[in-house]
Design goal:
The complex is a heterodimer. Chain A is an alpha/beta fold. Chain A folds into two domains: 253 residues, Aldehyde Dehydrogenase, Chain A, domain 1 (3-Layer(aba) Sandwich); 180 residues, Aldehyde Dehydrogenase, Chain A, domain 2, CATH 3.40.309. Helix content of chain A is 38%, strand content 17%. In chain A, α9 links the parallel β11 and β12. The mean pLDDT of chain A is 97. In chain B, α4 crosses α5. Chain B has one domain: Alpha-Beta Barrel (TIM Barrel), CATH 3.20.20.70. Chain B is built from 13 helices and eight strands. The chains are: A alpha/beta, B alpha/beta.
């Protein structure tokens, strides 16, 4: 007999999903007019009906946010704002399991990740910004930094609650009010967060949540009553937003795509590097804008690293996201799966060598096995375009200079990783890499104290840390 | 001896062999071990893990206060850990000081425990501070008394001074004393080697020198068998197998006191070295208190409730 883990599913009984949702405007849940389904991507089960916000709903949300800004929030002291944020953070911790299960149901990510990463980090962002709320004059952004007003925030489906926290926490800490739109395929945790706002007795209208698709997002972006747009999503949509707001006075921050280079030098600690490569590309099914999707291996260790990587990939557990032993869950949507399948096909057609471990994928739902492509060069499309799935392109290099040149040879510049035991070379590499976040001997580690953002087409502005506060305050150089 | 063709016995060749090893990143190794500790092992897999862990226990008593009576009692328990349930497997071995080896062997044979080996701690255990002549006699004495497993300690002082060839030669010498008669386990005392780089280096050194098992600790120094240390050693035996086609065993010892910790060790084995290592020929757990907790958990799984601790025997 062998040591097979028996199924260990987390119970979904803790969640209370309503058959139909509306919007959260002015501190109240209001009914929507049109609806669309949200599904569990692991089973294709319809979880609920989500409202599609049109012009009237977005207008109402912006109006509520403006009213709250003028009458309450801009007059609330930093110390008081901090109290609300601390309260929200604690409620998120208290209801962590409920949020984790709901996130996994709606998104398809493994419960281990929602439980150990997404929800604790979301709470950490509220705790961190709660601390800033009454200390903004010491943030190095001038003596009297002022909020911008009403922020329109549009977030993606890969880390639904965490991206909400990245946006809402700094906005509230700095005295702004918000109109937030979650991604159309993952609205449920944002709607549960609306309940948390009520539970925390946050003044009505400080946080407004409208659900919908790209058309709702466009209404927010183009709304004249909004002072600032914060968007996380694709570079394609980011460019549209940049064009739309260019003739206006709106401030903008954009967190866009990436094609992160993960550089492995010959003296890297191989076993831990292999773990880092796995974390870099298979964490969250590769639905990570800062994923290490291009692996750059020094030629003299390439064979050994690839051998160990493949052996390690054979141990990855793909399957039921609610099972506590699952490492890689379901692809978030049918559309995303189609895009991954298409780009992987391009990889085949271009002559890349595709390899995946043997794994039994469930019959229902959207699944894609962890995959690597070897024999890839900088001229291949799979080395240039963001796949946003569990697909790794493997390239090689001969010298440190060549590694940097290849790593920077992309219109993106969000993240990079450097693996090696030689500190001086690591620092040299970090100075020459054109990427907003550089990890050394680790990958995909996040912390609210650390600013996050991109170079080039990966975005404008920073989120998190002291630098992230600048995105929500005015009269600041470099804003 | 040809040392698997990896070294020729000279200091230069040993250096070349060990210098080829990649380093271990401490943060990364800790993170991997912590992640594997979150594996959820329930129902049928938990039941399998408990029985497997029982069969892997090196039931140990290494006290100045050990007596014939105490060792005989331990032997009885080793053969039938739960006297009320014959489906409970015997443990992996009895582990005692030299002077108790004869007592243990004789008593085991008397009570139908011929299949349970006796392991002796050797080479001036636990400190290893004696001349090689004494260490050789120490080992020979244990084998003569009936020990079929020798748990030797390395000279940590020599290792930390960089006299790796001395450490190597000592293991080679003890290996020769053991010959065909005894299985050799080499104890690193990882709590004194401290870094994971050292643990990795010691592992490859001991394996090339002829160890059948590599073992974390004596149980006399803390920290002992921490999860990342065991992880690094399991990676070493996995890689050594790829180099030589020879499987070396791993024995964590010290600090593994309850079922949860033991199951975490089995998870480390499964997901690092692989299923081939999940038996008492290639994985042992050096412990004393652990066995009773495994028995308690086993009773709980059968009955659905926790029994009073008085239902399992004291040592």
């Amino acid at each position: 007999m062998s040591f097979e883990y028996a199924p260990a599913p987390e119970s979904r009984a803790i969640t209370n999903i309503k058959p139909k949702y509306g919007h959260f405007i002015g501190g109240k849940f209001v009914t929507g007019s049109k609806h669309f389904p949200t599904i569990n991507p692991a089973t294709e089960e319809i979880l609920s009906q989500i409202a599609l916000a049109g012009k009237s709903e977005v207008d109402a949300a912006v109006k509520a946010a403006r009213k709250a800004y003028n009458s309450t929030w801009s007059k609330t002291s930093g110390k008081e704002r901090g109290k609300y944020l601390f309260r929200i953070a604690r409620i998120l911790q208290e209801r962590a399991r409920e949020f984790a299960v709901l996130e996994t149901l709606d998104n398809g990510k493994p419960i281990r990740e929602s439980r150990d990463t997404d929800i604790p980090l979301a709470a950490a962002h509220f705790f961190y910004h709660a601390g800033w709320a009454d200390k903004l004059e010491y943030a190095g952004l001038g003596s009297f930094p002022k909020p911008l007003g009403v922020a329109g925030q549009i977030i993606p489906w890969n880390f639904p609650l965490l991206m909400l926290a990245w946006k809402v926490a700094p906005a509230l800490a700095t005295g702004n009010t918000v109109v937030l739109k979650p991604a159309e395929s993952t609205s449920l945790t944002a709607l549960l967060f609306a309940e948390v706002c009520q539970q925390a007795e946050l003044p009505a209208g400080v946080v407004n949540i409208v659900t919908g698709d790209g058309s709702t997002g466009a209404l927010i972006v183009n709304h004249p009553g909004i002072d600032k747009i914060a968007f996380t999503g694709s570079t394609e949509v980011g460019k549209i937003i940049a064009r739309s707001v260019a003739p206006t006075k709106k401030s903008v921050t954009l967190e866009l795509g990436g094609k992160g280079a993960n550089i492995v030098f010959e003296d890297a600690a191989i076993d831990e590097t292999v773990e880092g490569i796995i974390d870099g590309i298979f964490f969250n099914q590769g639905h990570v804008c800062c994923a290490g999707s291009r692996l750059l291996l020094q030629e003299n260790v390439a064979e050994e690293v690839l051998h160990k990587l493949k052996k390690r990939m054979e141990k990855i557990r793909v399957g039921d996201p609610l099972d506590k032993n699952t490492d890689v869950g379901a692809i978030n949507s049918k559309e995303q799966l189609a895009k991954i399948v298409e780009l992987a096909k391009v990889g085949d057609d271009e002559g890349g060598q595709r390899w995946s471990p043997a794994c039994d994928l469930p019959k229902k739902g959207y699944w894609f096995a962890p995959t690597i492509f070897t024999g890839v060069t900088s001229a291949h499309r799979i080395a240039r375009e963001e796949i946003f799935g569990p697909v790794l392109s493997v390239l090689t290099f001969r010298t440190p200079q060549e590694a940097i040149e290849k790593a920077n040879n992309t219109p993106f510049g969000l993240s990079a990783g450097v693996w090696g035991e030689k500190g001086s070379r690591t620092l040299w590499a970090a100075q020459h890499l054109r990427a907003g976040v550089i990890w050394t001997n680790s990958f995909n580690k996040f912390d609210p104290t650390s600013p996050f953002g991109g170079y080039k087409e990966s975005g404008w502005g920073r989120e998190g840390g002291r630098h992230g506060l600048a995105a929500y305050l005015k009269g600041v150089a470099g804003e | 001896m040809n040392f698997y063709g990896l070294v020729d016995g000279s200091e230069a060749s040993l250096k070349t062999y060990l210098n080829k090893l990649s380093g271990v990143d401490q943060v990364g190794a800790n993170a991997r071990a912590a992640m594997l500790a979150t594996r959820s092992v329930k129902t049928t897999s938990k039941r399998w893990a408990i029985d497997t862990a029982i069969s892997m226990v090196d039931l140990t008593t290494l006290e100045g206060a050990d007596t014939v009576g105490k060792v005989q009692a331990l032997c009885t328990k080793a053969v039938r850990p739960d006297p009320t349930d014959s489906s409970v497997p015997s443990v992996g071995a009895i582990c005692v000081y030299n002077d108790m080896v004869g007592v243990a062997r004789k008593h085991l044979d008397l009570i139908g425990g011929k299949h349970v080996p006796v392991a002796a701690v050797s080479t001036a255990f636990p400190s290893g501070r004696a001349s090689i002549a004494v260490k050789v006699l120490d080992t020979q004495d244990a084998i003569d008394a009936g020990a079929s497993e020798i748990d030797m300690v390395i000279d940590r002082g020599a290792f930390l001074e960089g006299r790796l060839i001395d450490v190597f030669n000592e293991i080679v010498t003890i290996r020769q004393v053991c010959g065909e008669k005894a299985h050799l386990k080499v104890i690193f005392e990882t709590g004194e080697l401290v870094t994971y780089d050292n643990v990795r280096k010691a592992s490859f050194l001991a394996m090339a020198a002829g160890a059948d098992f590599i073992k974390t600790s004596t149980g006399k120094v803390a920290p002992a068998a921490t999860a990342p240390v065991v992880l690094v050693m399991l990676e070493a035996v996995r890689d050594f197998y790829e180099m030589t086609q020879k499987r070396i065993g791993v024995k964590p010892a010290g600090g593994i006191r309850n079922t949860k910790d033991a199951i975490k060790q089995l998870v480390l084995v499964k997901e690092t070295a692989g299923e081939e290592w999940l038996n008492s020929k290639l994985f042992r757990i050096g412990a004393s208190a652990l066995l009773n907790d495994l028995l308690m958990q086993r009773i709980k799984m059968d009955n659905g409730y926790y029994a009073s601790p008085t239902y399992v025997s004291v040592d």
